[in-house]
Amino acid sequence: MSTSVPFYRKYGRSYDRGYRYQSGSGYSVGTSAGTRTRGLDRSSQSRPDPLPKRANPSYLAVDRENQIIGYVVPVFRTSQEFAAGYSDESRLRNTATYMERRDMFTSGLEMERSEQISRKETMRESAQRISLNKTLYEHEEHFKRMNEDSLMHVPEFIIKPRSHTVWEKQCVRLHCTISGWPDPRVVWYKNNVAIDHLANAGKYKIESKYSVHSLEINKCDFEDTAQYRVSAMNVKGEVSAYASVVVKRFKGEVDEFLPAPRRTGVKDGPVSEYGITFQTNIVDNFGVSFGREGETMSLGCTVIIYPALHHYQPEVQWYRDGVLLSPSKWNHMHWSGDRATLTLTHLNKEDEGLYTLRVTTKSGYKSYSAYVFVRDAEAEVEGAPGAPLDVCCLDANKDYIIVSWKQPAVDGGSSILGYFVDRCEVGTTHWIQCNDTPIKFARFPVTGLVEGRSYIFRVRAVNQSGMSRPSRVSEPVAAMDPADRARMRGNTAPWTGQIIVTEEEPAEGIVPGRPQELQVTEATKNYLVLSWKPPGEKGLEGVMYYVEKCVSGTDSWQRVNTEIPVKSPRFALFDLAEGNSYCFRVRCCNAAGVGEPSDPTEATTVGDKLDTPSAPSKVVPTRNTDTSVVVSWEASRDAKELVGYYIEASIVGSNIWEPCNNKPVNVTRFICHGLTTGEKYVFRVRAVNAAGLSPFSPESEPVEVKAAIASPAPPYGISVLECVRDSMVLGWKQPTFIGGADISGYFVDYREVVDGVEGKWQEANIRAVSERAYRVTDLKENKKYQFQVRAANIAGVGIPSLPSDTFLCEEWTIAVPGPPHDLQLREVRGDSMVLLWKSPVYQGRDPVNGFYVDMKEAEAPEEAWRGLNTKATENTFFKVKNLKEQESYVFRVRAQNQAGVGKSSDISEPVQAVTKPGTKEILVDVDDDGVISLNFECANMTPDSKFVWSKNYEDMDDSSRLTMETKGNKSKVTFNSPGEEDIGIYSCLVTHTDGASSSYTISPEEMKRLLEISHDHKFPTIPLKSDLAVEMLEKGRVRFWLQAEKISANAKVDYVFNDNVMAQGEKYKMNFDKNTGVVELIMESLMPEDEGTFTFQMQDGKATNQSSLVLIGDVFKDLQKESEFQRKEWFRKQGPHFIEYLGYEVTPECCVVLKCKVGNIKKETTAIWYKDGREIKADQNLGFTEGVLKLEIAQISKKDAGVYETVLKDERGQDTSKLNLTDQCFKDLMSEVFNYIANSSTPLKITSTDQGIRLYTFVSYYNDLLPVTWHYKDSAIAFSDRLKSGVVGDQLWLQISEPTEKDMGKYAIEFNINDGKGGLRRTVELSGQAYEDALAEFKRLKAAAIAEKNRARVAGGLPDVVTIQEGKALNLTCNISGEPLPQVTWLKNDKELTSNEHCILRLESGKFASFTITGVSTADTGKYSILVKNKYGTESAEFTVSVFIPEEVAARKK
What we know:
The chain has 1454 residues and is mainly beta. Helix content is 11%, strand content 42%.
């Protein structure tokens, strides 16, 4: 197929003008996705062919009821030549013609004219289209108002948005036409994020007119490259359509047909914008990283751009395996202004690969790459395989989708039986398994999908142990026709004004013809896939397909899809018998009927057509770094559809294989990282395609993991250390990279420079020099020279250094010394490091007698140099302390002699003060034989590393004093005869590491300490936890014991008394517990002859020790008495006895309890209490659980003083306990009682009575012996008739009768609980408002008392009820009182009575009131009362009089 000519070259014009022309008015024809696009050149004809004549053409679409439901876009028809189509030959010929015309002026005028005509036609057609849209809109609105319900339908895209590819800084417009009722709500999305055109007013413009909706993006930039979606929604549903916008820029490699971007005369080199050239550096890089599925990983680099411009934004891009990454839910990218970060939110094996950060400025770009490895997550079932990866959809149609994946590298220890494919509809979380049995082929057609719906897929592997974890889900894919998907996505790029040609109306009533080009596109033992092309006729209505099959060799055709015809020209067949041969054919069908079958396919045998690849071969591993190996191999032969290779590694002899990559690599060379330094590995490789994994390749030869050896990098920093008339001494710095092997020497070249013209290089030395300083001889005085140095190792001689500065060969005559050289930094820690240097080659007039060290921060200015030592040091080393962690420093050294201080050395390389992980220090050790040694361990050694020991940072020549030994990653220096000659600083450096070194200072004090420890180890003693001691055991036995810290089973002990060895016997019981180290000697009792010295002598191998105890004089006598006492106590405790003797305690209720604790009692044990020899209480039948005897004295008084005694006894014996509660003991007891009473007292309060003011406090219990003193103004109160104190129950009070102002002041009550020496005091202030309130209350109470005393009263004498016989006389008398004399009133039934002959009322002597009825009658029955009243009050008394008539009198009256 010939290559289509780009749109911008079809008109033979400059790019800018041609593109404007094409984008403004060009037309082209586009076919469905996957078909080549052809361009129609309009310069050969001024206008398209006119449409055929039609009578009143209508563009309105109507239904069967002639109701307007839409409009139809008419077909654009061109000339007959175009209808037939251009051939490739014709197109190329015409293109060549246009290329010739391009240079002709007349042709240009012709094209201008054609362009103007075309623009007019386009404007006319646009105006007609707008008018048509308006008319259609008015008709639709009218019909909606007439009948809304009948037209409600889901939104539908009449015209979908199309994809565009534009150049940067151009505008693009996406538009679509949508129908639907009610009017749908339209929202535009960018990468599934709604576009807010109000928030980005200058960027986006959204319009909606007459059902035409558009999104305009102004001045596109690279960030506008995205997938755009337009969504329309109403109450009936929602639909969406997609379009892609690709924004291109002139940068890097461009399409060969694109013109080169304009250059503004800038030569090769960085492109400068605004006169600035940016320098980009990527530092603080991420290294090779390892993760596990499901984890989160962040990769980041610090980016330094110089000069630093405010708000300058470089272009930061991340790539994986060369593919640009875009932000997604899996990848989060962040730029903080100086650091670029990529976060992988949920690692999967798809994320494994080579990650590259690319930072682009207008002056170029910088990039950094490192590999990321992703291991399988822990299997949910032990032995299950790893998850498949790279699940994607190869072919999506209306009826099925082919899902493919890659096999995992880990099979779990047993072969993978197959795979299960799961699907999930987008928007749901319900996963459905698509296949019932596992399939081994890594592709599978999923059927049973709903057309128009989107799905995601995942795959799981299964072996004998179980199911793997599911893979990462695929990207969503819609079950729809590829042509529809192509129109939705718009795959053509760049955009050429392409339109899709459709017919105006489908043809009705026509049976479709035969399908074309039927073929089997894929065949496995599980399924077959057929594909064909639709029939050649255009405009057929609703074409679908039936698939038929027959067994090869027969003519019996059987329809496969009998129920539902196929909608797309592809079909997957299942359930075919493996090994059988089949032929297939396809029929078209529509509403008009079923068409003729297609030509049948060739006979196809069911089975896997794709074989697994053959095993790779010739696996060759090569050393790379300390943790990686480069593995290369020969590709599998005749491998089809190869996916890639998996590499596995195994430590030699382990037979355990681990995958080096979990994502197939499609190259034959791979770097395996994460290996163990120093181990030997073998490797094997296998290939993978959709059919499965190949056998493993043969194992490679073993390779040891260590850095590959290369020639060293060039030295640098060449300087002159001394110069005489015909020679110069040069110094230089060691190369930054030594090539993995020790530098064996250096070669120096020189050349003469005459008037700026360099001569030829000449060798200064034929043999390599080991030092980094060399004297170049045979030079000419007063001539200028340049020098270069090359380093050499076993791999060869490296490239030479850059030429040095030009130096003049003239003799130095200065008096001060030259510069020191060869500065080195060792023992770098977070707060210190050691600086080494070499003395100047040129000493000056006098010998060098000292050095000064200067330091500054690496980024600090020159003014920041500061000296570290005020007094010159004679050493050629200096330990720098008190550094700031993570800060980088540089140093320089100056030498001095008697003439002064010379020139400073070259500045050292910047060194960061940080303690590297795994850093060890030198440890001093003294072994059991007393041998002193220094030990150093290095965890980061390489196979070529060596330990280099030095004393005072100089090589140790005297090997007689030290013995060095190295085993593995440990080195030891042993002192043969330690002494003063060995005092100094010992350091150890490990070569071929990142500066692993340490030192240990042995000062005179440290040497003395080590020698003491060495002596102790040579002549050891048994350490004791405790020296010999004595303790008393029960029954008066005496125990002598000591304990050793550590002792062996072979140890022995001698027991010595007064220089005589004691032996085991009745008197001496000896015991030696070697597990605990306890040695003991037990004696039943002490006799006078046992006075003396006891010694335990111990021996354990060559270690000895002894401990003695002297028991003489009073010490021995006291111990003997104690032994006798304990012996008696033991016998006492054999019967009932007192564990705690008789004592007392006072309860909070102020009760005194006498108690004692007893033991070894039984039922027959009795307890008898005595006071002063008289029995007061007996406890019989004591329970074993009681254990405590008590005697309670509720209210103690003086009569309770005495001697109390308790006797316990039974048939085993008796025990007695006494308590003397007399004299001082009784006083102490009472003081404790008084203390409880005093502490229970309430705060002193004030109250009033009718007699005066009373101060009072309450106690919980009052004892008559309690001494209390009242105080007024800190003086004891002298009581009188007006001031009285007393006790009422538990209340203690002070009464102040008839108080006056003189009685105001501070009052207190003091409890004398300490034998009259003071105690608790309660105080109250009777003054101010408190006094006023109390005084007023007193006066009120006093007046009330007087009133109560003098008010009128009826004292008594009147009964409640009086029953009297008629005719009798009634006389009642009562006493009355009151001052003044009360007024007396008698009442009957609440009516006042007056004195008369019948009722006589009298008051005699003002005290006696009488009530007399001379002859009572029934009329006198009633309720009577007497009322007495004076000015202080009133009182009454009531009684009832009941008169009865005797029966005989009543009968007589009757």
